Amino acid sequence: MAKMNIEIKASDLEEVKELISGLQKKVEVYEKELDRLYGERYKDAKEEFDLGDLSDGYHTFNELYHHRMILFSVICNGNPLRAWKSWKHHDGTMYDDYFIVGIETIAGQYTYHYHKDHWSMFRVRVLDNAPEWDGHKPEDITRLLTLV
After folding, report:
1. How many beta carbons lie within 10 A of that of residue 73, not counting itself?
2. Mind listing the pLDDT tens digit for each residue in 4-58?
3. Between the CA of residue 5 and those of 1, 2, 14, 18, 94, what are the distances in Å?
């Protein structure tokens, strides 16, 4: 791909901003239309296909989520003084039919939500409300390494 050198003078800045704004609006229109066309074309497929059944050839998403739950229950059940579960977030909210389970590490907390059917897998303290979320993200999974 050939490189282009574009020089923009300060006096042209407003015109360039307007041009970019116009292009952004066109992109948004095109994206909406693509979403609409994709939705129409694959509507039936989405209704018939559960993404949890998607596989890499070895495991489905559903299997991997189940494995994660088993492994997290082993970690929590092995650290009962650090782990907890609750039917409510710290502010009293919760997703329908779900609970939250978490563990406190020296690096901070780590939590997951699980369906109510799996409540008994976690043999840990039951709290009225979960502790306030500390902002942890998926990449903070390494916090669990501080438990060993």
Report:
1. 20
2. 555 656 666 677 677 777 777 777 777 777 777 777 766 666 566 778 888 888 8
3. 13, 10, 19, 20, 53
Q: Which two tokens stand for residue 143?
A: 């916090």
pTM, two decimals, is 0.67
Count CB atoms within 10 A of the CB of residue 109.
19
Domain ranges across the chain? 13-48, 61-147
- Residue pair 110/144 in contact by the 8 Å Cβ criterion: yes
Q: Are 112 and 75 in contact (CB under 8 A)?
A: no
Residue type, 65: Y
Distance CA 119, CA 126 (A): 10
Q: 143, 131, 127, 132: which is closest to 85 by C-alpha?
A: 127
The pLDDT tens digits of the residues spanning 73-117 come to 999 999 999 999 999 999 999 999 999 999 999 999 999 999 999
**Is there a contact between 117 and 74 (Cβ–Cβ < 8 Å)?**
no
